[in-house]
């Protein structure tokens, strides 16, 4: 393990990574860029103001501060190829390449990948035309769109009319981009199984379940996550 580690991101995911890394006796210090209030001057952890959107500046920061390992949690930066650029400059970096990051950032890419490799997934179609998007015959629909800075919008529509309203906002008003993916809504328990891998070995984390709907009883609009718990009793 490297003496000095840089974690890139500002959310709870990066906070958890920094917190756990700091517990290792092999790690002397963890920088988090840009970090948050929880990672500011917390023992072996401190925030850094390095401009993470500029990969050249990040590379120089790593060399100036003898960073032995970089972990990237921020999806927009992964999609922008920060891992590729850091590795090309000789900086050890843990995270997917820009091409692999599309599995999280690009729904149509991910769904096509699943179909191509025979991995079960809900029926889906991608649209660039709002009129065609409103013609899908799935009984219940999930409307997924992607906008600036990898912001993702997910609308769970109980009717065709509700789905069409979401498509109107996304495509005609250009709130979140020019393409939508409409999926068949699968009902049931939703669990997250996240793993760490170096390309050879896979280490699974405990199963977790997130609360994404705004209100109790799976009601209200979808959110980025209202909370989560682990372990789960269902599995």
TrEMBL record:
In the UniProt record, does the keyword Manganese occur? yes
Pfam family of this protein, just one?
GARS_A
Q: Which SMART domains match?
A: GARS_A
Q: Which residues form the Phosphoribosylglycinamide synthetase ATP-grasp (A) domain?
A: 106-234
Leader sequence residues: none
- Keyword ATP-binding in record: yes
* InterPro entries according to UniProt: ATP_grasp_subdomain_1, PreATP-grasp_dom_sf, PRibGlycinamid_synth_ATP-grasp, PRibGlycinamide_synth, PRibGlycinamide_synth_N
Keywords assigned by UniProt, alphabetized: ATP-binding, Ligase, Manganese, Metal-binding, Nucleotide-binding, Purine biosynthesis
GO MF terms held by the record: ATP binding; metal ion binding; phosphoribosylamine-glycine ligase activity
GO biological process terms, alphabetically, are:
purine nucleobase biosynthetic process; purine nucleotide biosynthetic process
State the protein's name.
PUR2 protein
According to its UniProt entry, this protein's organism is Bucco capensis (collared puffbird)
